[in-house]
Amino acid sequence: MRHIVLRSSILCAAVGGALMASPAFAKDVSACLITKTDNNPYFVKMREGALQQAKKLNVSLKTYAGKYDGDNQSQVDAIETCMADGVNGILITASNTSAIVPTVEKARKAGIMVIALDTTLQPTNAADATFATDNFQAGKLDGEWARKRLGDKKAHIAFLDLATSQPSVGVQRDQGFMKGFGIDIKDPHKWGDESDPRIVGHDVTGGAEDGGRKAMENLLQQNPSINLVYAINEPAAAGAYQALKSVGMEKQVTIVAIDGSCDGVKNVRDGVIGATAQQYPLIMASKGIQAIKTFAETGKKPQTSPGLDFTNTGVNLITDHPVKGVPSIDSKAGLKKCWG
Amino acid sequence: MNSNTQPILTARGLTKNYGRVTALDNADFDLYPGEVLAVIGDNGAGKSTLIKAISGAVIPDSGEIRLNGKPVQFASPMKARDAGIETVYQTLALSPALSIADNMFLGREIRRSGILGSVFRMLDRPRMERFAKDKLSELGILTIQNIGQAVETLSGGQRQGVAVARAAAFAAKLIIMDEPTAALGVKESGRVLELIRDVQKRGLPIVLISHNMPHVFEVADRVHIHRLGRRIAVVDPKSISPSDAVAIMTGAQEPPRDSAAA
Amino acid sequence: MNDTADPDDDSGATGQPSSFDVRRRTPVQHIQHFLHGNPAAVPVIVVIASLIFFAIAVGSKFYSAFALTLILQQVAITGIVSAGETLIILTAGIDLSVGAIMVLSSVVMGQFAMHYGVPGYIAVLAGLTAGAGCGLINGLLVSLVKLPPFIVTLGSWSVFGAATYIYSGNETVRSQDIDHVAPILHFFGESFRVGNAVFTYGVILMVVLSGVLWFALNHTAWGRHVYAVGDDKDAALLSGIHTGRVLVSVYVVTGLICGLAGWALIGRIGSVSPQAGQLENINAITAVVIGGTSLFGGRGSILGTLFGALIVGVFSLGLRLLGTDPQWTQLTVGALIIIAVTTDQWIRKVSA
What we know:
heterotrimer; A: alpha/beta; Rossmann fold; 2 domains; 6-stranded parallel beta sheet; 6-stranded mixed beta sheet; 12 helices; 12 strands; C: ABC transporter involved in vitamin B12 uptake, BtuC; two-stranded antiparallel ribbon; 2 strands; disordered N terminus
């Protein structure tokens, strides 16, 4: 029995390899896009961008998604399906950036180019390339802006983070914000170990409105003098605003967020969010498809951005209250580039 | 004993087949007012199908059932119940978590009068509890301290008592009791047999299905012996011994000549 | 449990020939019987004890009218959904789709108001109808097709969830836009103050709904039938209860309640978000279980659930204010679930 399984898997691998190697099949470039979920507007937009670009470049693209954020198993299944499908390249926003690595390695051994989108794998070089927002930089822009915006006022900061498991995206944004604000971040791989008295506390939101509201209420109860809120994303920020509004504090508190969705940018325009760092999932996706096409035709892999171990797809701070020394664009310009 | 009066319930020529298995084969049945009629039969003799046909749980393929002389057809146990036939199931069909009063009225609750009842559908608890209490004391089962206590806090015998009281309270014509003592100890069985007599005294005829010959011979006025899908004999327990009844039931002995369809 | 028992179990009947046996009880059994007869007692005791504990441990920050009413606001959504979940669990079912129905209803309200341009109250009615409709689908599958509720709602959870995303195109409707077009959607988020206490209409809804369901469960035939169906379905059927109709009605009512929760959710978070409420089914089941309702059906109370939801709220705010990490809240709530079920098992032994 074991022998049969073993032999058939060797056979599969051999057939797969043959498919990959055969120039007859290389004419049609095919790719897979695997997102964390298929319901978050961010990933919906990313998928749209990828499909558009794929159509333009004549790449056949299949899309897969996990069932929930953190669903590693579905992503493993998806990679295996793509391998069986004999694709040239896989684009993946990994739900679990280290647990996915062995499967990614299998795919790469089979000659498939794997590109991480949005989030770097751990280690980063487990993927052939990464197109992502520099999340640390995004947070840092928020932090720098907030420090100038508050000026001489003593800051009391609430941190509305993603989840208790401290996924890397959330940690990078959080720690970037602190860095930009001038807080000693100690271990940059986790939040909560800082001792700066300006920090009121951290709470988790799940990146959604209901979580944002509850976390904000909890922290306000801990210290009602909060005047600055860092939110992991714009839905969490909207929830926090709702909590502040219910106690009449929405005018005294500045909220910063990260994402740059159209709703988020509108909230910047309407004064709900002070500033948000906009990222570009469409660019990640289209660059990813382009890279797979190039790789399939020429075997060349994309270059990383200078000073980083991945390809930065850029981030812009969007605010209608620009401060000196921090580059930003206004909400009008932001609305033209927004997603979702 | 009741040969002069009209039977309250009769069945003639009941037949029921399940595929090639014949459960009822031209079976007859008679129940007279005020009597306790025991139905005995070996396993597979068809006595439970007979009882189900009378209580509406099984619809016979052919044959006729008459209640007070009028032909009736029960499509479901509900219909039989509406016609005045109450059944005390072997499982009792009580809701353990509900109170004694709620159980007695399950499926036929009384609502408050006025707007509370018509608009808010509010139950008339005081009335239901008073009624339940009355019925239980009539049958002498009132050691139960609290009519509002859950049935599951009662002993097996007490539960049987509640089920019987429920049947007795609502039965207009007759009560069928399926193996009422099967799950009980000696003492509690004794109480249930007393209860059967109490119900009988209040004028309701009872059909008692039981495997327990001593119990059958203690309370029954007549014994209907079922064998191979039909009534093979009806005997007077005072004139026949339990072992003879069992012998007839199992076919080891011919039924007495005068016992045909009495 | 009771080893101080009478030498003769049947002794109670002596001298009372016409009575069934009555056993004497030990103090522990008295407690057991009391809890058995008053299923909401345990959660009430736990709420009071935890309030006292946090009042001492945290001080005035916790023990203030504002903070205590904040807990009410925070548990309102879960409180409403779990009231519906209680009905289902009382019938020995479980509904995994409650959160999905809630979000779907809120999205229907948002879409109707924003994209179809109907008046706010029509949008609300449409959302409530959608909620009841989802419940009807669950109910028919459970009662007519006779599938296990776990399987039905495991499936419908995904179906309703996906329907929400497809229907809304994953779009959030922002709070500001709702205020312009259909402020009625924010009704349950509006608040009034009594001194320092702040009550939202969502909180009022939770309390009133619990009261109405308490009445229906305890003082109407329907309520008794809900218990009877969950307790022993065959017995209920033999007692003349239309068990199928009772089941369908329970799922429809729960769907409608989830629709109300969806409305209240818009009030709480301001926007209409397909992303919100992802864990609401788990939160609701947690509240029901901590509130002492048995997953085996037929036993429990709506007030217990209300207090169960409050216990979770008290612990999460209390622990937060003590300065513990959010992980500890999760751990504590998990422990509470296990303790609650253990207690339920013990109380059930009354009948044994």
